[in-house]
Amino acid sequence: MKAILALEDGTVFRGNSFGATTEACGEVVFNTSMSGYQEIITDPSYKGQIVAMTYPLIGNYGVNNEDTEARKPFVEGFIVREISKIASNWRSSDSLDSYFKKNNVVGIEGVDTRALTLHIREQGAMKAVITTQETDEGKAVESAKRSPGLVGRDLVKEVICSKPYEWNAQGKYHVVALDCGIKLNMLRILAGLNCKVTVMPATSSAADIMNLHPDGLLLSNGPGDPAALSYIVGNVKQLLGKVPIFGICLGHQVIGQALGGATYKLKFGHHGANHPVKDLKTGKVLITVQNHGFCVDTATLSKKDIEITHVNLNDNTLEGMRHKKLPLFSVQFHPEASPGPHDALYLFDRFVEMMKNN
Amino acid sequence: MPKRKDIKKIMIIGSGPIVIGQACEFDYSGTQACKVLKEEGYYVILVNSNPATIMTDPELADRTYLEPITPEVVARIIAKERPDALLPTLGGQTALNTAVELAKNKVLSKYKVEVIGANIKAIKKAEDRQLFKKAMVKIGLDLPRSGNAYDLKQAFKIVESVGFPAIIRPSFTLGGTGGSIAYNIEEFKVLAKRGLESSMINEILIEESVIGWKEYELEVMRDKKDNVVIICSIENFDPMGIHTGDSITVAPAQTLTDKEYQNMRDAAIACIREIGVETGGSNVQFGVHPDTGRMVIIEMNPRVSRSSALASKATGFPIAKIAAKLAVGYTLDEIPNDITRETPACFEPAIDYCVVKIPRFTFEKFRLADPTLTISMKSVGEAMSIGRTFKESLQKGLRSLEIGKAGLESICFKDLAEPKADEELTQEILEKIRVPNAERIFYIADAIRIGVGIDKIFELSHIDRWFLQNIKEIIEMEKALLKHKDKVSDELLTQAKKFGFSDRQLAKLWNKKEIEIYKMRKSINLEPDFKLVDTCAAEFQALTPYYYSTYDK
Fold first, then answer.
1. Domain ranges of chain A
2. Is A292 a catalytic residue?
3. Average pLDDT over all residues of chain B
């Protein structure tokens, strides 16, 4: 079926739909990972976003029952150059097309994704719509313009668990994972490191969290604008120094704000699996997985209290920090990978170490 | 880390004569190394017996010896020139073998020549199958079942446990020379004997057959600070059992989920660390069982290889050049990415196109050679193509072979509208798919033309169904083009170009002249796009003009 991808600045791409036939809007971003589309589409951080894959051949290995990062896909829409007509892999249980149909997600194929990527690189991430309903380009552009976008929006509440649950009942250390849109691989890794893991929704109060007497608190990734999350920032402020904290992605941005810093929006964000990040302590470079449109402004952080631990070698943005006195560290990238390289897995060991020493 | 100042003179060994398995790709890597080391101010001494190479051009090295690449001759050059270091990892297997010999003869220790890139211990660990196996078992990697033999008696004992078909691989040879597959004990007797004779140290490895498994390669780079990156993943269209040099290969990997790819990445990184290649590039090969996903490591080349040249061109990341810089002490984060200039070389290229490499054979020149493709390399060249889809790249590559094909054309049929095969021809086509040969890709297309299903072709060839499906889509497009030959819609013509059909190919299908198709295209503004190879999938601005054509508007 014919489909239109329309951007708020009037740019239009035409293609064919796959998955559901519907209309979906969101901020359009590009992701440069060459594999891992199943993890990407199920990553709750993509709530509110339409993802364009720069690798042109998508769907080749289908989808399976293990490689999901959440209970369902969260991406608003999906843009590819060519969707595979066959799912060829020994673990495949469904095709991407069929999976999208079942989950009511619209995809568009036949788009010159490189032209789209160049456009986003030059003009910045912008609001867009994918539609199989509307055939008039002008009207589609209008829908893109009218869509809410990301700035100032709290999308966390739309993706989190409704009530606390236990991921892993047994373990040496008890970790509370504050679900802001958590990727399941963080939980899998912590369980693998012999941690008891309880997941709590991001709306939980500081007292709710402390009532569980956790040994450590994980602040997860999540969607939307970090500046719209004052309720989480407020809770984390109360918890600073009371429990060892590890923040990832949105969790890192929340910590940045709790420590008095501010976040800003990147032009087109970092979305991919090949970003070089230097660990300033070891001098070694990690190839990291990234998925963020906002960033903590280094200049707004107190040099007295905070040590920068990781920087991005492509654009020198802040990638990781630790508190000089309190048991607390955070990273902007995704050490849990999934998809992407495992170079930064050691940070979970560091978290366990921190709980041990506390 | 800055570059090393304690070494001043560096010797590079080239790859010598062009032979099957070792051709101009090593001239390419060696030339890059010479250029880099000279730019860095080192005194470069080059040994290469082949004057028909770029690297032996006068301005490329400070001293060039057009002498036989034998341990004796190189030893005399070392005695005369007294280099501080020897870089053996950029001249293919010949250079590596020569370095090992020079170490064994104590020439290197006598003249205090340091081996840079990969040291002798690492080279031995990677090249000696027994040491390699031990090392891989140590880091927990799975390998095919195997055993080493130094005489026929031992060989028979080992094959009892390995079973048939069994692979016989001699240690220390060129381009897999002497490697073979035995399907029964009679064949085994002949092949094992031949293998023992062709090994420089009379050693063969007898191995569980992984024929038909999916085959992958990763190009890995490591620096002195132990930063390791993967430059490129390559998936072989032709499964295990055919030498990579004789296989159609595709970059990046197409049919691995990220979980499986990352396992392979972890294994490749663990491998280069355990083998101990301190700096530079290595190539690690894996086999994956198509039904169970069991992954085994096949081998590792502790040097720049044929695949490195492909990976460099496929990604825009100059592996040989960077390897030379790493050998003299730079680290990956200190070297800028040539193409973006702003970002460092310490990253993993993201590509937004599909690369296909197709081997070129000249069996007509080797009348007595068996044209069946096996684990010994037989191709004499290759064509590499870039497109936005596998279909486009495959067809571009096939017409670049200069074998008279304008794309994935038929080898058996004149009338493509209604290709008819009697029982005999059908059997011949199926047989040509079952037994690997230079034209197999064309026979696969013809099988699809006469209605043979993908599952049947997979059963015969073990070529992944994803590739076969794409070939099927090309043939379906061909059928649509024939059906609508009298009135082709703009949309269908555009789609055909996106599937890689050339003007000539369309002209042949429609009994028209190529110029007519060209005009037809022009009249609807259907023209190629030129897209950049930029290492980063358009994320950053690229400054090096390296383009490919594609239809993508």
1. 2-146, 156-357
2. no
3. 94
- Residue A35 forms contact with B (CB below 8 Å): yes
pLDDT at B176 over 60: no
Q: Of the candidates B180, B185, B182, which has an alpha carbon nearest to the alpha carbon of residue B156?
A: B185
> What's residue B24's pLDDT?
85
Say whether residue A18 is in contact with chain B using an 8 A CB cutoff: no
Q: What is the pTM of this model?
A: 0.94
b/e for B454-492, b at 16 or more Cβ within 10 A?
beebbebbbbbbbbbbbbbbbbebbeebeeeeeebeeee
Establish how many alpha carbons lie within 13 A of residue B321's alpha carbon, considering only the half-sphere containing its beta carbon: 15
* Per-chain mean pLDDT for chain A: 97
The three-state secondary structure class of B523 is: helix
Q: A350 Cβ partners below 8 Å, 6+ apart?
A: A329
d(CA B481, CA B495): 10
Distance CA A166, CA A170 (A): 10
Quick check: B498 and B392 in contact, CB under 8 A?
Answer: yes
CB within 8 Å: B351 and A35: no
- Nearest CA to A128 out of A16, A18, A4 is that of A4
Give me the phi and psi of A285, to 5 degrees please: -105, 135
- The predicted pLDDT at position B553 comes to 80
Active site residue A275: no
Single out the catalytic residue among A249, A292, A295, A323: A249
Cβ of B258 within 8 Å of Cβ of A90? The answer is no
User: Which has the closest alpha carbon to A233: A296, A283, A142, A279?
Assistant: A296
Using the beta-carbon criterion (under 8 Å), do B465 and A88 form an inter-chain contact?
Answer: yes
pLDDT reading at B446 higher than 80: yes
Segment (H or E) for A232: helix A230-239
Peptide bond into A327 cis (omega under 30): no
**How confident is the model at residue B188, as a pLDDT?**
95
Report pLDDT digits (tens) over A61-105. Answer: 999 999 999 999 999 999 999 999 999 999 999 999 999 999 999
B81-120 residues touching A, CB cutoff 8 A: none
Contacts of B354 in chain A (CB under 8 A): 56-57
**What tokens appear for A210 in the block?**
């402390």
- Biggest distance spanned by C-alpha atoms of chain B: 78
Choose among B335, B381, B320, B330: nearest CA to B30.
B320
User: What is the SS3 assignment for A123?
Assistant: helix
Please compute the mean of the pLDDT values over residues B128-155 and round it to a whole number: 93
Among A252, A271, A323, A334, the one annotated catalytic? A334
A161 catalytic? Reply is no
Out of 3.50.30.20, 3.90.800.10, 3.40.50.2300, 3.50.50.60, which CATH number does the structure's domain A2-146 have?
A: 3.50.30.20
User: In chain A, what residues touch B466 (CB-CB under 8 Å)?
Assistant: 60-61, 84, 86, 88
Buried b (16+ CB within 10 A) or exposed e, B319-328: bbbbbbbbbb
* Residue of chain A whose alpha carbon sits nearest to that of B264: A341
Based on DSSP, count helices (H) and strands (E) in chain B, helices before strands. 19, 18
- For residue B331, give how far its alpha carbon lies from the nearest alpha carbon of chain A (Å): 10
Collect all residues of chain B within an 8 Å Cβ-Cβ radius of residue A84: 466, 469
Lowest-confidence segment of A234-248, A317-331, A343-357, B339-353 by average pLDDT = B339-353
pLDDT digits (tens, 9 = 90+) for A330-349: 999 999 999 999 999 999 99
Q: What is the ipTM of this complex?
A: 0.96
* Domain A156-357 is found in CATH 3.40.50.880: yes
Helix (H) or strand (E) holding B44: strand B43-47
Picking from A86, A270, A277, A278 by the largest number of B CB atoms within 10 A of its own CB, the best residue to mutate is: A86
Cβ distance B258 to A36 less than 8 Å, yes or no, reads yes
Min Cα separation A143/chain B (Å): 24
